[in-house]
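Annex B. Sample input.
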Amino acid sequence: MDLFDVYTLYDIEPVKGRGNYVFTADGTPYLDLYGGHAVISIGHCHPHYVDVVGHQLGRLGFYSNSVRNSLQEKVAELLGRASGYEDYSLFLCNSGAEANENALKLASFHTGKSHVLAFRHAFHGRTSGAVAVTDNPKIQSPFNRSHKVDFVELGDIEGVERALEKGIYCAVMIEGIQGVAGIQIPSDEFMQSLRDITKRMEVPLIVDEVQSGYGRTGRFFAHQYAGIRPDIITVAKGMGNGFPIGGVLISPMFTATKGMLGTTFGGNHLACAAAIAVLEVIEDEHLVENAALIGSYLLQELRHEQEKDKKILDVRGRGLMIGINVEGAASELRKTLLYDHHVFTGGAGASTIRLLPALTLPHDDAHKALKALHHVLH
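Annex B, continued. Sample output.
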């Protein structure tokens, strides 16, 4: 049997990881500035993470959600404390797409409505409802297009208000920062106006923090720069440091009924152990603060580079979520960084290099990455 050939692959196989590096079988180190799509939040094979997950595997790896699981309660407690959302409830699932599916379902249950308002160039996942609110027809099948979704431009608050006046929407859904679109940051003023309008019109506001959450931007959630509180927040990626887990943070305005949401594997014992270890390391090692500090250094140096080099057209980002818009094909620069300088980066569209390293990135490795980028550009 062959694999279903849907991925474009680099001819490199990491077999081991440690901190901010991955290694091939011959021992070659690669600086990981992408973290496997923003998943690696506390570094590869962090000792505390390995200990906690390994210990749990030796006790109990899985049981269903038909019994109490105190590990889930601990995840909720730690996540509430770390994020400042202690009065919210938590529903655990397996991925960001699944978190977004459940967020949309919850909003639809609550309002009795079926339409969703989303934003141009958004990416919310590849499952049925999540891909329907993703503005990319190339990954939507005819089945996905049966969902009732309208799109407005990011930043167009008048367009949002005109749409919501129709009274048909169960939710407005927005990313804390649009990652796949090339690190597009909604202004704080826009997020504040969006929160005001959705409150006034009694339309739940869902903020997708799957990529931009968990400390990546130098705040626990990207929307916290605007000082707002959404009705629903979705998380995943950095939540498990590689172990599949997602979550929906749900405000007190929603009422739970038995059976309205559910999952077989969501919140299983191993996933919760991973999530607990991640939150403990984030707190103990002050990683949100490190993301702010190192991210500020990278953004400052990249903007200085932009002033000197016309090949850099724009630099956007917050914390360790950075987009570098370049002249020409970003994919060629990324290949040169990978094969010649052993630095993993990500892409977003044809012309943007995306940096999403672990929140543990130290100054020395940030400096090393800047030197590699400088060499490639020149």
